[in-house]
């Protein structure tokens, strides 16, 4: 299955047997991101969290369950 990264527009080939391929076929809201873009975003987010100026908000469901 051919997939295109939403950030860099690189076209990759993934196996049609993978759960990711099924998710992309059956739910059009899900998008594909290549490994390089995913890793780059992960590193940048961790850097922002380390500065202390970036606030990482949890989802409202997690907050409700804490009380």
TrEMBL record:
InterPro entries: DUF2197 (IPR019241). It comes from the Bacteria. It holds the Pfam family DUF2197. This is YlaI family protein. It comes from Psychrobacillus faecigallinarum.
């Amino acid at each position: 299955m051919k997939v295109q990264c939403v950030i860099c527009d690189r076209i990759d080939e993934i196996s049609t047997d993978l759960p990711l391929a099924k998710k992309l076929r059956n739910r059009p809201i899900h998008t594909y991101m290549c490994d390089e873009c995913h890793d780059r975003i992960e590193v940048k987010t961790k850097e922002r969290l380390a500065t202390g100026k970036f606030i990482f908000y949890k989802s409202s469901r997690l907050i409700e369950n804490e009380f």
